[in-house]
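Quick one, C-alpha coordinates below. Sequence please?
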Protein backbone atom coordinates (compact mmCIF):
# COMPACT_ATOMS: atom_id res chain seq x y z
CA UNK A 1 0.00 0.00 0.00
CA UNK A 2 1.49 3.36 -0.94
CA UNK A 3 0.91 6.56 1.01
CA UNK A 4 -1.74 7.81 -1.37
CA UNK A 5 -3.83 4.68 -0.97
CA UNK A 6 -3.94 5.12 2.81
CA UNK A 7 -6.82 7.60 2.61
CA UNK A 8 -9.84 5.52 1.77
CA UNK A 9 -12.50 7.13 -0.40
CA UNK A 10 -15.91 7.25 1.22
CA UNK A 11 -19.38 8.74 0.94
CA UNK A 12 -18.53 11.78 3.05
CA UNK A 13 -19.69 15.02 1.42
CA UNK A 14 -16.57 16.81 2.68
CA UNK A 15 -14.33 14.27 0.99
CA UNK A 16 -16.32 14.64 -2.21
CA UNK A 17 -15.81 18.40 -1.96
CA UNK A 18 -12.05 17.89 -1.53
CA UNK A 19 -11.93 15.65 -4.59
CA UNK A 20 -13.83 18.29 -6.54
CA UNK A 21 -11.41 21.03 -5.43
CA UNK A 22 -8.47 18.90 -6.64
CA UNK A 23 -10.28 18.36 -9.93
CA UNK A 24 -11.00 22.09 -10.29
CA UNK A 25 -7.37 22.97 -9.55
CA UNK A 26 -6.12 20.57 -12.24
CA UNK A 27 -8.49 22.10 -14.76
CA UNK A 28 -7.62 25.67 -13.66
CA UNK A 29 -3.95 24.82 -14.10
CA UNK A 30 -4.44 23.99 -17.76
CA UNK A 31 -5.53 20.35 -17.64
CA UNK A 32 -3.66 17.09 -17.35
CA UNK A 33 -0.80 17.60 -19.84
CA UNK A 34 0.13 21.05 -18.53
CA UNK A 35 -0.20 20.05 -14.88
CA UNK A 36 1.82 16.86 -15.41
CA UNK A 37 4.63 18.92 -16.87
CA UNK A 38 4.53 21.59 -14.14
CA UNK A 39 4.04 19.27 -11.16
CA UNK A 40 5.99 16.15 -12.14
CA UNK A 41 2.91 14.06 -11.31
CA UNK A 42 2.29 11.33 -13.89
CA UNK A 43 -0.59 11.97 -16.31
CA UNK A 44 -2.32 8.72 -15.30
CA UNK A 45 -2.34 9.82 -11.66
CA UNK A 46 -3.79 13.22 -12.57
CA UNK A 47 -6.43 11.48 -14.67
CA UNK A 48 -7.42 9.40 -11.64
CA UNK A 49 -7.76 12.63 -9.63
CA UNK A 50 -9.96 14.09 -12.38
CA UNK A 51 -12.12 10.96 -12.33
CA UNK A 52 -12.25 11.24 -8.53
CA UNK A 53 -11.14 7.62 -8.26
CA UNK A 54 -8.05 8.45 -6.23
CA UNK A 55 -7.32 10.96 -3.49
CA UNK A 56 -4.23 13.13 -3.82
CA UNK A 57 -1.52 12.86 -1.18
CA UNK A 58 -0.57 16.04 0.64
CA UNK A 59 2.63 16.24 -1.41
CA UNK A 60 0.74 15.97 -4.71
CA UNK A 61 -2.04 18.32 -3.56
CA UNK A 62 0.63 20.88 -2.70
CA UNK A 63 2.21 20.53 -6.14
CA UNK A 64 -1.20 20.88 -7.80
CA UNK A 65 -2.07 23.95 -5.74
CA UNK A 66 1.27 25.61 -6.53
CA UNK A 67 0.96 24.89 -10.24
CA UNK A 68 -2.62 26.21 -10.27
CA UNK A 69 -1.56 29.32 -8.36
CA UNK A 70 -3.74 28.78 -5.31
CA UNK A 71 -2.84 28.34 -1.62
CA UNK A 72 -2.79 24.72 -0.46
CA UNK A 73 -5.30 25.45 2.28
CA UNK A 74 -7.91 26.39 -0.32
CA UNK A 75 -7.80 22.75 -1.40
CA UNK A 76 -8.44 21.85 2.24
CA UNK A 77 -11.63 23.88 2.08
CA UNK A 78 -10.67 27.18 3.62
CA UNK A 79 -11.99 30.23 1.77
CA UNK A 80 -9.41 32.21 -0.13
CA UNK A 81 -10.20 35.35 1.91
CA UNK A 82 -9.16 33.60 5.14
CA UNK A 83 -6.00 32.33 3.52
CA UNK A 84 -4.67 35.85 3.03
CA UNK A 85 -4.01 35.91 6.79
CA UNK A 86 -2.57 32.40 6.96
CA UNK A 87 1.09 32.15 7.80
CA UNK A 88 3.89 29.92 6.61
CA UNK A 89 2.12 27.27 4.53
CA UNK A 90 0.50 29.64 2.05
CA UNK A 91 3.98 30.74 1.04
CA UNK A 92 6.45 28.47 -0.70
CA UNK A 93 6.85 25.29 1.33
CA UNK A 94 10.24 23.55 1.37
CA UNK A 95 9.71 20.29 -0.49
CA UNK A 96 11.70 18.07 1.88
CA UNK A 97 9.91 19.41 4.97
CA UNK A 98 6.61 18.73 3.24
CA UNK A 99 7.67 15.17 2.36
CA UNK A 100 8.84 14.48 5.92
CA UNK A 101 5.53 15.61 7.42
CA UNK A 102 3.47 13.73 4.83
CA UNK A 103 5.40 10.48 5.33
CA UNK A 104 5.56 10.61 9.13
CA UNK A 105 1.91 11.58 9.57
CA UNK A 106 0.64 8.88 7.20
CA UNK A 107 2.86 6.21 8.77
CA UNK A 108 1.85 7.06 12.35
CA UNK A 109 -1.83 7.24 11.45
CA UNK A 110 -1.61 3.94 9.56
CA UNK A 111 0.22 2.22 12.43
CA UNK A 112 -2.27 3.56 14.99
CA UNK A 113 -5.28 2.74 12.82
CA UNK A 114 -6.33 6.38 12.47
CA UNK A 115 -8.29 7.08 9.29
CA UNK A 116 -9.20 10.63 8.47
CA UNK A 117 -11.06 11.84 5.40
CA UNK A 118 -8.83 13.75 3.00
CA UNK A 119 -10.36 17.08 3.95
CA UNK A 120 -9.39 16.49 7.61
CA UNK A 121 -5.92 15.10 6.85
CA UNK A 122 -4.77 18.16 4.96
CA UNK A 123 -5.29 20.68 7.81
CA UNK A 124 -3.54 18.24 10.17
CA UNK A 125 -0.63 18.02 7.75
CA UNK A 126 -0.46 21.80 7.42
CA UNK A 127 -0.46 22.21 11.21
CA UNK A 128 2.40 19.73 11.63
CA UNK A 129 4.30 21.29 8.73
CA UNK A 130 4.08 24.69 10.41
CA UNK A 131 5.42 23.17 13.65
CA UNK A 132 8.29 21.41 11.85
CA UNK A 133 9.35 24.45 9.83
CA UNK A 134 9.20 26.67 12.92
CA UNK A 135 11.77 24.37 14.61
CA UNK A 136 14.14 24.43 11.66
CA UNK A 137 17.09 26.79 11.45
CA UNK A 138 17.02 26.55 7.66
CA UNK A 139 13.69 25.36 6.21
CA UNK A 140 15.38 24.62 2.89
CA UNK A 141 17.86 22.18 4.52
CA UNK A 142 16.78 18.67 3.54
CA UNK A 143 19.02 16.95 6.10
CA UNK A 144 17.63 19.11 8.90
CA UNK A 145 14.05 18.29 7.90
CA UNK A 146 14.83 14.56 7.92
CA UNK A 147 16.66 14.83 11.24
CA UNK A 148 13.52 16.27 12.85
CA UNK A 149 11.34 13.34 11.74
CA UNK A 150 11.69 11.53 15.13
CA UNK A 151 10.65 14.73 16.95
CA UNK A 152 7.63 15.05 14.67
CA UNK A 153 6.67 11.41 15.13
CA UNK A 154 6.83 11.80 18.91
CA UNK A 155 4.70 14.96 18.72
CA UNK A 156 2.03 13.23 16.63
CA UNK A 157 1.94 10.13 18.84
CA UNK A 158 1.69 12.30 21.98
CA UNK A 159 -1.25 14.18 20.47
CA UNK A 160 -2.97 10.94 19.51
CA UNK A 161 -2.54 9.57 23.04
CA UNK A 162 -3.99 12.77 24.49
CA UNK A 163 -6.91 12.60 22.05
CA UNK A 164 -7.58 8.98 22.99
CA UNK A 165 -7.64 9.98 26.65
CA UNK A 166 -10.07 12.82 25.92
CA UNK A 167 -12.90 11.45 23.75
CA UNK A 168 -14.78 13.96 21.66
CA UNK A 169 -11.72 15.58 20.14
CA UNK A 170 -12.42 13.92 16.81
CA UNK A 171 -9.09 12.13 16.59
CA UNK A 172 -10.02 8.77 18.11
CA UNK A 173 -12.85 7.04 19.82
CA UNK A 174 -12.62 6.25 23.50
CA UNK A 175 -11.19 2.82 24.25
Amino acid sequence: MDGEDFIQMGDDADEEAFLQRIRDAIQAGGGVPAMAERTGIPKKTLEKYLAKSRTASFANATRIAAAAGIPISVLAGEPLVQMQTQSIVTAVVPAEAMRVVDQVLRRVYREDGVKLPADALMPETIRHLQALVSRMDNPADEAEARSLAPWLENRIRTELKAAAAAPGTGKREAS
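The chain has two domains: 8-77, 90-165. Residues 32 and 47 are 7 Å apart (CA to CA).
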